[in-house]
Amino acid sequence: MKNIYLRLIISLLSIFTINPLAGQKLISTTPAGIISRDFLSFLFGANGALLENGIELYKITYSTVDVFGKPDTASGLIILPSNGKKSFFPVIYQHGTVDDRNDVPSNVKGGWEAGAVFAGLGYFTILPDYLGLGTSRGYHPYVHAASQSWAATDMLKAAVTFAANAGITLNEKLFITGYSQGGHASMALHRDLEKNPMPGFKVAGAAHLSGPYSISTSMLDILLSDKEYGTSGYVPHTLLAYNPIYKLYTNLNQVIKPAYLDIVLRRQKEEIGLNQMNTLLTAALKKDYGKAIPSYIFQDSVVNNIKNNPNHPVRLALKDNDTYDWVPKAPTRILYCKADEQVGYTNAIFADSVMRAKGAQNVFIKDLNSAFSHGQCVEPALLNSVLFFKSLSVSTSLFAVHSKTTDLKVYPNPASTYLYFENLPNASKVEWFNLQGQKMGNVTLDAGNELFIGDLSDGVYLFRAISGNEIFTGKVVIKK
């Protein structure tokens, strides 16, 4: 990202705080930037052509509770489309693992770009910082399902007040997504909002991206394994997060070996960020053992006790934060990349298998690219999520009336004059819509037929082909 240009723009904007709203969930609102569509498109390179409008950013603070049930003030970022409209579909985006409490969306860091994409496509986008980050006090309860969920729910309540103050109407259809830690957080939020719906909203669709849904196996596998893991700091980071909640130890020296204790203590005191803790631990482990193996950070007796005791408090704490064992009602996508080196793809496979075994009808899983790493998977995951949400917000029935949905193979893409459809069944009804939901045309085509699209203006279009009980869907960029 061209963050240097973004910071320059934001630094030129006047920042002020509106007086707190007494007695309401929303405490304060601070404008955090305005970005034009052209500059936003520049920031996102080739995919910037998909974006439809500029955006406005607002940092908010709101009331919530900490992990002990005591009142706390949390923060987050709201991003609005700058398109003159006053009615929007809301999206909650849960961000991935960040370095420290300042590396958060409300500071236009920590994954805010994903929110910019959704807002750039017309969504009212809500990005919680999480507890223990931003303005919230205490150590961040990392991958703690319950607090990730209630912090987002409370921010949604605050966003309702924000919208009302701005004269904005929020559609009742709510979309939920998140990447990495955010995939775990979005799954927890989705589960809780279907179990206890928030008045005025209904989860219309969810896309959970590369998340550790089975935290009790994914984190435990890293802790007990003798294999190298590139981000060894994640394990003590989780321990520091869970201990205040689950009382796993009295002193860190009970669980951490002396050689690594100071590094972890410095992170606990927030003297260093997660990235520096990981760098220092990796270097120390390689010096001592030749490999960065997370289990070597911990006392041997602790690792052995966890390994041999199925009811060990650490195992129980991890299991308490699994987010897969339920049945989603709303259309749900679980997206991953098989070569992910940080979050094992088996998390997605396992979650999908359990949900389907319990009777889930609306869950779809997809390996976006078997060769992509955790970082490489972000872009296709967000793109698939955007198109999925667009298909659900265009029309309640547009993509749900047929029993089988398959990707539509269309070329060239981008296109200017003609489109060709690969492996299209004969006598298929082809329809196309703009991203505002307007139907732009329809025709019946046979395999090998071309479709003239020279009369369409530049933009992104959703194409749907129907044949029998099958529906084929895809998006096409039209650029003259």
Task: Describe, in short, the structure shown.
By secondary structure, the chain is an alpha/beta fold. The chain has helices at 3-11, 37-43, 112-120, 145-165, 181-195, 215-224, 234-246, 258-268, 274-289, 300-308, 313-319, 346-357, 378-394; strands spanning 26-35, 54-65, 71-82, 87-88, 90-94, 124-128, 169-170, 173-179, 202-209, 332-336, 363-367, 404-407, 409-411, 418-422, 428-434, 439-445, 450-452, 459-467, 470-478. Helix 6 (215-224) packs antiparallel against helix 11 and helix 8 packs antiparallel against helix 9.
Main attributes?
single chain, about 475 residues, alpha/beta, Rossmann fold, Immunoglobulin-like, 3 domains, 5-stranded mixed beta sheet, 13 helices
Characterize the structure shown:
The chain is an alpha/beta fold and 480 residues long. The protein has 3 domains: 169 residues, Rossmann fold, CATH 3.40.50.1820; 105 residues; 73 residues, Sandwich (Immunoglobulin-like), CATH 2.60.40. It is 32% helix and 25% strand. It has 13 helices and 19 strands. The strands form 4 sheets. It has a 9-stranded mixed sheet, with helices on both faces. A 5-stranded mixed sheet has the order 12-19-18-15-16, with helices on one face. Strands 13-14-17 form a 3-stranded antiparallel sheet, with no helix packed on it. Helix 3 links the parallel strand 5 and strand 6. Helix 4 packs across helix 5 and helix 8 packs antiparallel against helix 9. The two termini are 26 Å apart. The N terminus is likely disordered.
